[in-house]
Amino acid sequence: MTIRPFQAAKRGKVRNTLKMKVLGVVALLGAGLFLVGCKSAPDLTQSQALALIQADYDHAAPVGANILVNDLGMRQGISAKYWTRTTIYPNKFWADFTLSPDGKKVVKLPAGGDVIQWRPDSATDTGYTYRVVTVAANHLKARNLQDAQDEGSATTKGVQFTEAVDLTGVPDALQDIAHNPGNQLSTKRHATFELVDNVWKLHSVE
After folding, report:
1. How far is 187 from 184, CA to CA, in rounded Å?
2. Shared-domain flag, residues 67 and 121
3. DSSP3 helix / strand / coil % (the chain, rounded to 5)
């Protein structure tokens, strides 16, 4: 069969048209994938960041709070009947204090036992403290979160916040001792979040 010139040209135009349509479809698909790939990261709100940090804290075992008892705290503890002085040494500034039954319900001694060995360097050593641990155990609390900030890329954010000791279940008299100078009930922390599968996840707390 003889193919006439105008028929060959027509077939060539059809092929070119089909080729252009195919290329057009490919271009549209590529543009769609490009737009998906360029989709902006979701916001990390303060409430989301707080929930992630607190969930991390709550995952750990609850612990008692460390309280540094200074000279004023020792006198407050005596008034609250948490301990009594049972021994005084010849130098007049060393002493032993024994936990009362009520005291044993609210504090524990790091070394065990029930005797606080009060050993300042001198009678004027106002900086001496003795550490006790609350029987009441709680999780740390995340508070005062700042807005999230990008850290190097849109998929990494940092948040400044305050890590606070929770004194829930601690008697008022012992809380007063915990608020004396020398105690640190809160610490500034920095949390880092990473975007994984378009979901923000807590990476670290420092």
Report:
1. 7
2. yes
3. 35, 30, 35
Q: Determine phi and psi for 33, rounding to 5 degrees.
A: -65, -35
Note whether 83 and 116 are same-domain residues. Answer: yes
User: Please, which pLDDT band fits residue 141 given cuts at 50, 70 and 90?
Assistant: very high
Alpha carbon of residue 186 to chain centroid: 12
Instruction: Kindly list the distances between the CA atom of residue 30 and the CA atoms of 26, 27, 41, 86, in Å, as whole numbers in the listed order.
Output: 6, 5, 20, 83
Report CA Rg, the chain. 34
Q: Do 27 and 125 fall within a single domain?
A: no
Whole-angstrom distance, CA of residue 13 vs CA of residue 4 = 15
Q: Given the DSSP bridges, would you call strands 156-164 and 199-205 parallel, antiparallel or unpaired? A: unpaired
pTM: 0.77
Q: How far apart are the first and last CA of the chain?
A: 83
How many domains, the chain?
A: 2
Phi, psi of 135 (to 5 degrees): -70, -40
Domain boundaries, position 8: 1-39
pLDDT digits (tens, 9 = 90+) for 89-134: 999 999 999 999 999 999 999 999 999 999 999 999 999 999 999 9
DSSP, collapsed to helix, strand or coil, labels residue 19 as: helix
Residue ranges with strand state E in the chain: 63-69, 83-88, 95-99, 107-108, 115-118, 130-138, 141-143, 149-150, 156-164, 186-196, 199-205
